[in-house]
Write a structure and sequence with these properties.
Helix content of chain B: over 70%
CATH topology of the largest domain in chain C: Rossmann fold
Radius of gyration of chain B: 19 Å
Largest interface: A-B, 42 and 41 residues
Strand content of chain C: 15-25%
Shape of chain B: globular
Number of domains of chain C: 2
Largest sheet of chain C: 7 strands, mixed
CATH class of the largest domain in chain C: Alpha Beta
Number of helices of chain B: 13
Radius of gyration of chain C: 23 Å
CATH architecture of the largest domain in chain C: 3-Layer(aba) Sandwich
Chains: A mainly alpha (298), B mainly alpha (310), C alpha/beta (421)
Oligomer: heterotrimer
Number of domains of chain B: 1
Number of helices of chain C: 16
Distance between the termini of chain B: 21 Å
Chain lengths: 298, 310, 421
Amino acid sequence: MSDLLAVVVDGIIYSSWLFIMAAGLTLIYGVMKILNIAHGSLYALGAYLSATLVGLWVAGGHAPYGSYAMLALSALLVGVVMGPLLERGLLRLMYGRDEVVLLLVTYAVFLILEDAIKLVWGVDSLYVAQPYDLPGNFTIGDLSYPVYNLVLIGTAVVAGLALAWALNRTHHGKMLLAVIHDSEVSRALGINVGRVYLVTFTIGTMLAAVGGAVTAPTLAVSAGMGVEVIVLSFAVVVIGGLGSLGGAALGALIVGLVRSAAVHYWPTVELFSVYSVMAMVLIARPKGLFTPPEARRI
Amino acid sequence: MKDRTLIVLAAASVVMAASIPLTPQWLVFLITLALAKGLVVLGLVLLMRTGLVSFGQGLYYCLGAYAAALVEQSFHVNDAALMLAAAVVAAAAVAAVLGFLLAAYRGIFFAMLSMALSMILFGLLVKSAALGSTDGFNIATHSLAGAKIEGSAGRVLLGVTIVSFAAAAAGLHRYLNSHLGRLSAAIRDNELRVEYLGASVRNVVHLNYVIAAALGGLGGGLTALAVGHIDPDMAYWTTSGEFVFVAVLSGTGNVLAPFAGSALYEAIRTLANQYAPNVWQMTLGAAMLAIIMFAPDGLWSLFRRRARAS
Amino acid sequence: MKRIVQWAAFSLLAACCGLAAAQQPLKIGIVTFLSGPAAGPFGVPARNSAEVVVEGLNAGRLPAPYATKGFGGAPLEITFVDEAGPTTKQVADFRNLAQRVDLVIGYVSSGNCLAVAPVAEELKKLTVFFDCGTPRIFEDATYKYVFRTHATATMDSVGAALYVMDRDPKVKSIAGVNQNYAWGQDSWNDFEAAMKVLKPGVEVKTSQMPKLFAGQFGAEISTLLSSNAEFIHSSFWGGDLEAFVLQAAPRDLFKKSTVILTTGETAMFKLADKIPDGTIMGARGTHGVLAPQTELNKWFRAAYEDRYQLSPVYPSYHMVQAILGTKAAYEKAQAANGGKPPSQDQIIAAFENLTYESPSGNVQMSLGKGHQAVQGTAYGTSKLVQGKLTITDVKYYPAEKVNPPDGMKSEDWIKSGFKAK
């Protein structure tokens, strides 16, 4: 029985991590119809920056719990700087082009950012374990887990709820939903679609950076960490339905639990678990789990 | 009416084939690779003309390579012709089956499902210790349709590749101008109307998918023979992504474009790695952006600058 | 007057040419990871090592028997090529590089080694592999132009198994957590097979195989914790190794089981006090802190630490081993050639079955028909002493105990119960 409990706990921890990554990606796709491959490098950027800031904070002898503030700060910085920079500076020039072309633009940005990160931070790995070690451990059954994982789950839940509230209960949120549904009509109704794009991309970037920042204390931040994350986030987003926040949450949960079960009971198929789930979901529901109804052009 | 594309294709092939004995070794290899990858891109161009972007051509590229290699390993057949035939047949067969599933998807879902399938193949190959897992294994070619080719295998293979590419490009060009080819373009524009007109969209998409897969398999087989080594990386999504990039880079305007795009991509990557080994990824990315921004319809559009009455 | 000037010019030219003939630089191409996740743990230490050693060689600063400048007087020029990217790119780069250099030293990734070896044969270019682990290179084929100056990964796994038996001859259960690709799979398979031979009946509780570069090991660690295995084997490296240690240590995995890190030495300075005491650490040979205190090693460590303010780890040792092996072969061939620069065939003939000294001890090119090196290995246990991580309780295993005999495949050798020929 405790085994099943471990599977569920591990699954939820992993799902939270996936959700933070997928939320930003699905939001950007839903609004701008861009599958942002650079999401991976923004994640890496968030991780590197937070590692640096936490390192500086701790070295400066400040209160250890303040390092959490540093994590949040680095995510904010990355979002606020890289979001507008990429959207206004580059993507804006490409709107109206084919979806695939935009995807390749983000792929080019990904390549450039990977080397940029390497130039700034070098190829050695950084690690800052203070935020991870500080809160200690807690036990479930006979397994001990770091309390930090609860921080991870908490961040995912807060981010999800905040986004859901912002989208459904605020004026700006509803405008965003309108743009997701049909950008042409929204523009015709007077919504400043350009600004919506900018805000969305910034939030998406910030979410990616949050993912990186929150992950950084749990591992050694190293070159190439963005690549693995990209395909995983894509899979979750596609499973949940592109543009759907609830879908991203459900997709993350499914993938996390399936993977956790695979690791505990059948480790050799862990490699396939994500793609098999994606293939199966797409076969059963060709457009993912939750998709907004779409009018068909005749 | 003379078809300019076919003439240029024939002329270019003859010139290239004639200069094989004069080309330096390293260039022989690069051109073979560029052409082999160009074949895969040709398949992608066909799919893109039908309105589909596949992020999983790596599946057939890898299948073709492994089929060619397994023919050598299991049956001890070193003949290039047989190995390539196996590559094409294997790829086409798998595509015929998977096509039933994939032909129902469009847009981003087609792309993602094709990617998922190629990653599943990747996973299967990584798990297979018998096939060397991620290290793969080596293959050697000793003959071509019975004639021994050791010693100058590289050049003979280049010849085979040139002929394959020329034949495939010519074939595809004729296909695109045929009934089914025009139907494919129509499907890209508006599927529903095509159905109303009485044609079967599903069948055309399925057929195009199989053709693209066959070309992918052939490209994979040729790459396997040229490099002499295969590994599961050929099915990884970044490989498929590279093909998509070259396809967009060359543009879907003409069957000659994929070769130019593929050659340019290889050239940029080689130069970037040689002269800027520390920032080769950035160089590649910047080059990609430049091309996307200044040659929006792919490189081919640079050749068609002449004013056309729209 | 004019004649004197002409004569002077001519003599100067002749002297220069004569000098130039003796001083023709030897161009070496070095291929290793300069970008990507393998750069930090392997590529950069290897590159640093190459730079420091070549610099030292060109200035003639190495102790005997390597005191001659460069290779037999010829200065060395090195070009670096990035090993990152798919195999097709590696082969293309190798073909390109082979035209520009006299010999190639390189390759960390086993897949690349396998792909490049036949190309080296085709192009007849002397190539020395310095770090890749797979035994398949000389077990599946024979090469004339290819050499490998370090022992295969089999040595690491067998050495680990021997150390486990030395630590606890009554061991009952083992488990593994390795990256799911050829390196991880082979390392685990060899370790498991060796343990089953050394202790029949030992129970394998679980073998975790997370994806390469997964980075998140929560579920794997939970499973390992529940398994209660006595020894856990891991061939993790780089970011995965560091993440695993950072995530597993706070959850007391290292207390519940004894963890074996076969490439742990690469992270020992990085992670230092994060690695709990009692962890079994490997360095893929007698490298780093496990290396003997010879003049050569002292010079190497001093030169490296002086330049980079870091201690050299095993990839650095692998690199210097490759360079010195080639130098030894070159100079042996040169001596046999009456002091004139030797041809490539002569260097190859000298390299085969060569025994030479390196900062990690003696290297014998005794497998693979004289092309594959064997060495002994060592494992130790980690212990924090005054805040610094040290490796204590070191046990050395001679080459014959941890390497198969010539002509026998590693897998078969282990299964046969480590039969010497």
